[in-house]
Fold this protein.
Amino acid sequence: MPDPSSETGADVVDVVIVGAGPAGLTAAIYASRSRLRTVVLERNMAGGQIALTDLVENYPGFPEGISGFDLTQKMKEQAEKFGAEMREIEGVVELRAEPDGCHALVTDREEIRARTVILAPGVEPRRSGIPGEAEFIGRGVSWCATCDGALYRGKTVAVVGGGDSAVEEGMFLTKFADKVYLVHRRDQLRAAPIAQERAFANPKLEFVWDSVPRKIDGTEVVEALQVENVKTGEGRTLPVNGVFMYIGQIPNTTWLKDTVELDEYGYIVTDGLLRTRIAGVFACGDARANPLKQIAMAVGEGALAAIQAGRYLDELDSPPGTPATAGESGAGAQQ
Ligand code: NAP
């Protein structure tokens, strides 16, 4: 591939990847190994949501499980080994198409120009919005059992939600807390059957069915969670020292709303080759409208997005009438 900087200016990189979770880091491994000049924008720390997960049991290759932090650190190391450059930012505020076909990404720190962009911004935990939630952040309200669980040794906590995150992180919290209430708005969990079986067998977990959180009480720190039974209307006060909210996730895509297409929930819409409606801009991972939010899925999408970005560049750089070259980024040269 010809040196793109000779045509478009030395400050233009081949690919900027927004997000350093499993999708973004895998895209970085593939892009940098294809000798594309690759910059990864990471917010706070590499790994995304999964870096906050105590134990990943269903990612192939780790029969004993691996911590989310260790897994994503290894992915980051691998991307850097092939030359990907990591840049820490607080956030991206704008994606802008340039007249010369490049894309400008405006972050809180700088403006970067790139020939292609891979969007892998991931998701963040949904907030319930109940009174006390915002007030007690860091004083008993948390979205990260891995980070904060050890603070609740010998105490009582509530976990809200019935999905994989609530059940798995609730189980993790029983390592520290004497008692964990699992508050779910229905009488059936959404979590995977294996997680449910373990949870039902755990004597430290008490299920509070058909109930939604209404208010978090306390003075200096959290002292209680008020819940309401949605079938009977009855209220109950759970005496707890901490509340962990796992009621789903929202994609980090607000900044994209006037550029790429988003679905009604804010997830990025692409075609099957992960192309957004903007030429040269691809999307992958949990923030993409896809049916499975799993690391294995994110990793596969990250690889495909990088390959597609490489093919797009090959086509741009091929003189008209000649077939695009096929390096690792090109057709038929993958392993
Ligand atoms: P999720 O699957 O969307 O579950 C959210 C839970 O919160 C649901 O049980 C939902 O109830 C409940 N909920 C939603 N809004 C609520 C509200 N306003 N008030 C009270 N409860 C509310 O979210 P998640 O557990 O964070 O998982 C996200 C994705 O990551 C899923 O695809 C999940 O499979 C995946 N994940 C996988 C693993 C793993 O494979 N080990 C681990 C973690 C996450 P309903 O059930 O009634 O809708």
Observations:
- Confidence is low (pLDDT under 50) at residues 1-10, 329-335.
- The helical segments are 4-8, 22-33, 68-81, 145-148, 164-173, 193-200, 295-317.
- The radius of gyration is 22 Å.
